[in-house]
Amino acid sequence: MPVQISFSDHLRADGLSVSYGERRVLADLSVTVSRGDRLGLIGENGAGKSTLLRLLAGDTSADASSTAPPSIAEVGGRITRPPRIGLLLQEVAFEPTDRIADLLEHALAEVRAIERELDEAAAALATDGHEASARYSAALDAAERADVWSAESRRDELLDGLGVAGIDHDRTIGEVSGGQRSRFALAALLLRAPDALLLDEPTNHLDDAAVAFLEERLRAWRGPVVFASHDRAFLDRVATGLLDLDPARRLASGGVATAASGSPAAGATVFGGGFSEFLAAKADERARWERQYVDEQAELKRLRLAVAESARQVAPGRAATDNDKFIRHFKGENVARTVSRRVRNAEQRLETLEREQVRKPPQPLSFAGIPSGAHALADEGGLLIQLTDATVADRLHVASLQLAPTARLLVTGANGAGKSTLLGVLAGRVSLDSGSVQRRRGLRVGLLEQDVRFAEPDASPRALYERTLGERRAEQVPLSSLGLISPRDADRPVGVLSVGQQRRLALALVIARPPHVFLLDEPTNHLSLGLATDLEDALGGYPGAVVIASHDRWLRRRWAGAELQLESGRARGLRAA
To answer: Can you tell me which residues the record assigns to a coiled coil (predicted)?
Structure first.
């Protein structure tokens, strides 16, 4: 049955299901977003966030991803939504030859049409009586919701707040950067002032000031808002509730993954509040999962012993005495039936529990110790790496930087500030044009790059893991024990895995055999929110030095170590821990 769409002042999905071929994306999802509510969508890549946004917007033939060719999906359920709805996709849906001025004017066209309807409805009041009064009332309500009287001033305020006010409107979309295109698309959408907003990763390409401006706008939005985001700080400040679309967590715990602060929804889990509340609920959920696992394992042990003991009572394996024969003459048949019934009951309970038991909770993310031996430098003191007047053309200049064995350094700065170049220098992958870099003898440095590329795309994660660590180390710390690569993906070619899966494999290689210096370039990119948070917690106990380059506001606000700020390739200050 196709999706049925009706209209109201709120957003609601009832029994929404979506499949692409044999792949089930959404299963019987039901959720309501009232006026003034702001629902954040979270979950792994491919969990269905973008698909849900498209369906809520009325696109019932939306493809599974914004970059895949269009395909007709099997969809079902019912959607209730406001008539005027605004959808922001990750990919800007404008032609490169479109002028910025035309883009903004197109956004105002709907607002101007509402204003014209209000004028015509007002003119008809003098002649058309009751019907004209109802028409005028509806037109006035629409004009107030669209804020038609402040359209021009709102346009200038939006462009300024999103950081694109100084760009000539006669330029075409193709003449500005990708980040600027995204900002203009967001400005145009907000300028329309739709009754409901659907946003897919709205903070992509926004700096801190623009994100703060958007947060303020969304918190004041009067209609329902649904947005997908990997920005944990944005989720924390904007969302009034979170919808977790990741089925892996729900299935892993045998269906017990219901947040204490939220309620279960068919095919997903709803949490009340922002990301901080989500983390608290997740911790409670983990504790319940662990308790249930322990209780079930204890019950399984008891049932197995009970079955074995009862079986011995039925067939004790000894000859009957004269007294046994006397008792059996009177009670034997009843005793046998009673014991057999207890055995059957215990066996049935055991069979049910063995079939339905929750799996063991995965171990919290943690790093193994740095292998001991000649290259174990962490306990020797002194510096591991030292930069002096390090210069790479016009990309980087650092007068002095020293890394101790247990250093914790966060490198911040805008895109293009030189963060990745600095990590490349520390890793020995980028050569200096002038200055010097000194490394301890025997130092092992690991770099988690933004874009992971494996030289052998046909090799499996398991094979790469065993080859990198060695057979003995791989046996001591099995890939499956890390919880980063699912068993169904362990033997697939790494080249067919998603960007996020390849990044998790690269992380697994480091976790099992940590280097003395661990460099991470935007480590939270392409990772689920839960894994990103677990990684940050685990890095606090890393057995060596850690250097992170990141623009992630959640990470930056909680960072307790030293911080180096780069601006146009130059270090503007080193803040001590």
So the answer is: 279-306
Determine what percent of the chain falls in helix, strand and coil, rounding each to the nearest 5: 45, 20, 35
pLDDT digits (tens, 9 = 90+) for 150-199: 788 888 999 999 999 989 999 998 888 888 888 999 999 999 889 999 99
Task: Name the CATH code of domain 385-575 (choices 3.40.50.300, 3.30.300.30, 3.30.565.10, 3.30.1360.70).
Answer: 3.40.50.300
Domain boundaries, the chain: 1-83+195-273, 96-181, 297-356, 385-575
pLDDT of residue 315: 55
- Whole-angstrom distance, CA of residue 50 vs CA of residue 413: 29
Between helices 100-146 and 178-192, what is the axis angle to 10°?
Answer: 30
**Are 509 and 449 contacting, i.e. CB atoms less than 8 angstroms apart?**
no
Rounded to 5 degrees, φ, ψ at 196 are -140, 150
Report which of residues 145 and 219 the model is more confident about: 219
Q: How far apart are CA 280 and CA 530, in angstroms?
A: 12
Phi, psi of 436, rounded to the nearest 5 degrees: -145, 155
Do residues 392 and 430 touch, judged by C-beta distance below 8 A? yes
Mean pLDDT of 419-432: 94
**Amino acid, res. 419:** K
Q: Which residue has the tokens 């914790």?
A: 408
End-to-end Cα spacing for the chain = 59
What values do phi and psi take at 166, rounded to 5? -85, 5
E strands of 186-312, at which residues?
196-200, 225-228, 241-244, 263-265, 268-272
What's residue 212's pLDDT? Answer: 95
Higher-pLDDT residue of 90 and 410 is 410
* Rg over CA atoms, the chain: 30
For residue 2, the one-letter residue type is P
